[in-house]
């Protein structure tokens, strides 16, 4: 009976938090990490992560799928070593461009690692304790003696420091509804190009935005993080730059609010 009740409670929690009305964490700066050294010319090596992506990430239609079930033991070891390499650095000693690539790649590598640690699973949302909706709030790494979660990286470091809504296209939550895990590791040199590419690909895909019978369906990202896009009106204007037909829909007198969808199934091949 107790086991049955636990399952019921978990289902209720997931039902609440997986809806399009899910409250996303606010961008809440962690000041400790808002330090950089603009005069440091050194770069951080992300070649190990690039190798893992090359060997395990496949492009199928609108989706980039990771081979969680077929990854080699050597690549699992390489992933562990890469994460260890990054967490032993002090990112505050690097310039801002190096830092951005550092945090994005670390987030994505840690996400792959947590899925592998709990594989097989149908969804990352099933990882965590009874009262958890996914692993995002769990302690996952230690840097400079500071324990860090995935939520910390996204909502307390990346979003408040860089204030670029395209961050949402760079960090991957191991789900089909999420903007794709990039086939290239982020670097200080390619960040702008990768962000622009990811932005365009996601918005123009059905999982980013879809128009059916004159009705607009958007990714729940544009609901959860609408504040990052300047509010709903600004967000719709922004999307219309990529799909002009949106403008015709939202200016109609009988325009109804967009619906929001998100696919939490694992992005596995």
TrEMBL record:
It holds the Pfam family DUF547. Residues 92-203 form the DUF547 domain. Residues 1-23 form the signal peptide. InterPro entries: DUF547. It comes from the Bacteria. The keyword Protease does not apply. Keywords: Signal. This is DUF547 domain-containing protein. It comes from Vibrio algicola. The lineage of its organism: Bacteria, Pseudomonadati, Pseudomonadota, Gammaproteobacteria, Vibrionales.
